[in-house]
Amino acid sequence: MISTKIVIAGGFGVGKTTLVGAVSEIPPVTTEAAMTPLALGGDDVSQIPDKASTTVAMDFGRITLDDNLVLYLFGTPGQSRFWFMWDDLVKGALGAIVLADIRRLDDCFPAIDYFEKYHTVPYIIAFNTFDGHLEHSVDDIRTALAIGADIPIVTCDARDRKSVAGVLMELVQHAMLNATGASHGR
Question: Which CATH class is domain 2-183?
């Protein structure tokens, strides 16, 4: 049995806690705290007005993908005031998912920058399609994000176990391809 660590990163309120909870086979560990008036003053909730809590440390879950692979999921907090924790959460990870909301594309730029500039962890971008579809083509999104064709872009519904499992499989395949490519001088 092989076990490995996966990080789920992204902006504030994109669905990281929901994603971990949807797929975890154990009750997920969350560090949700109520949104206080002070947080509401600093966090933009205009696109997510019903948000009442936020992750202040991490989320944790586990999923067994097959008889030989267990993934331990670590969801990062989204606000910049908690980014100091990201280095510890990413340490030893097989890869990362940058979860994004197409309605708030700018919110995923810091997570993409983090993985592009500060870590060699393979990552993919997953758009949480709250309404079931993307309104833009993947090519247009890739251009807007200024990322190369080597970074997979997928869609998911962070509330749906099967959809999230598909994203995790995509990340594992991408990470394995990167490891194989690195060992062949890529």
Answer: alpha beta
pTM metric for this prediction? 0.83
For the chain, the structural domain boundaries read 2-183
> Residue 51, SS3?
coil
Q: Helix H segments across the chain?
A: 16-23, 37-42, 86-90, 109-117, 138-145, 161-183
d(CA 32, CA 53) in angstroms, rounded, equals: 6
Question: String of b and e for 55-71 (b: at least 16 CB within 10 Å)?
Answer: bebbbbbbbeeeeebeb
Element of type H or E holding 96: strand 93-100
The string of pLDDT tens digits covering residues 8-59 is 999 888 899 999 999 999 998 776 655 455 544 455 555 555 654 555 557 8
